[in-house]
Write a structure and sequence with these properties.
Two copies of one chain form a homodimer.
Chain A: H1 6-9, E1 13-21, E2 27-30, H2 31-43, H3 46-53, H4 57-71, E3 76-80, E4 86-90, H5 92-124
Antiparallel strand pairs in A: 1-2, 3-4
Helix pairs in contact in A: 2-3
The structure holds a DNA duplex (30 and 30 nucleotides).
Chain lengths: ~120, ~120
DNA sequence: CATGGATATGCATAAGAAAACATATCGTTA
DNA sequence: TAACGATATGTTTTCTTATGCATATCCATG
């Protein structure tokens, strides 16, 4: 055993969250909404996406409204009625936003894991 | 105006949190405890640090206990009694842990800000 | 050896977020 | 044109987590 920390280091798991707020502190985009937007696009439906992620429709609807309220234009194209009851997909802007965050998130995943590895090594030696 | 996003981009602020958990999901170290540990060392007292950060002593005490319970050795050297009532400072292990997290956090601050800048630029062009 | 002020810790309460519940609306299709 | 299923949104309940409160303990110093 090198340092007192040694025996515990393997049991430490890193987590992180990134999110964006407007100047009043309202949450605009974070991991939760990001995943939700992606899944909505995949499923073609808010309800289906909520069911899969285990979120309540009510909450999701409110959260997504915040983003659109902030930007002032829709990120989602929602349709009501029809045989399927309705459907939802990303607007072109929604797609752009998600794609940008995809990239950002992928980059950060990489550097943060690397930084964490260094952190653990520091405590080890 | 280049894209629909343009007028809002200046009002978006990035936030992030990093924290570590043990395998049962108990929070070990994160921004809150990290800042608290640093301030305790600076002030030489848990109470003084809590007052400055606006945290309740009760909560802080409980949070710090979790870390020490996880590691199984003290990160703080606490002293009760005396003219000053008591005092607290970091143990050598506490200092090591804080120093390692300092470095980690500084590195991440840099890359995340850089990544965020790129994210905004992506939406701008 | 009495005092003061910080540490130590249980417990009761309040605040805030999420879940649950309830209903209305919409519009395509059978 | 009746019905179905998803979107839309207000209201209530639940739960987690922080806060507040109370009280005990400790011990260098005057």
């Amino acid at each position: 055993m090198q340092t007192k920390f040694e025996s515990k280091l393997d049991h430490i798991r890193l987590h992180y969250k990134m999110w964006m707020e407007d100047s009043s502190g309202t949450g605009i985009l974070g991991d939760g909404k990001w995943k939700m937007l992606k899944l909505i696009e995949e499923k073609g439906s808010m309800k289906a996406a909520c069911d899969e992620l285990g979120y309540t429709y009510r909450r999701t609807w409110g959260n997504l409204k915040k983003i659109e309220d902030f930007f002032g234009f829709p990120l989602l194209e929602k349709h009501r009625g029809g045989a399927e009851g309705g459907s939802t997909q990303l607007s072109p802007e929604g797609k752009r936003l998600v794609a940008a965050f995809d990239r950002f998130h992928a980059d950060m995943d990489m550097v943060i894991q690397k930084g964490f590895f260094t952190f653990i090594q520091t405590l080890r030696s």
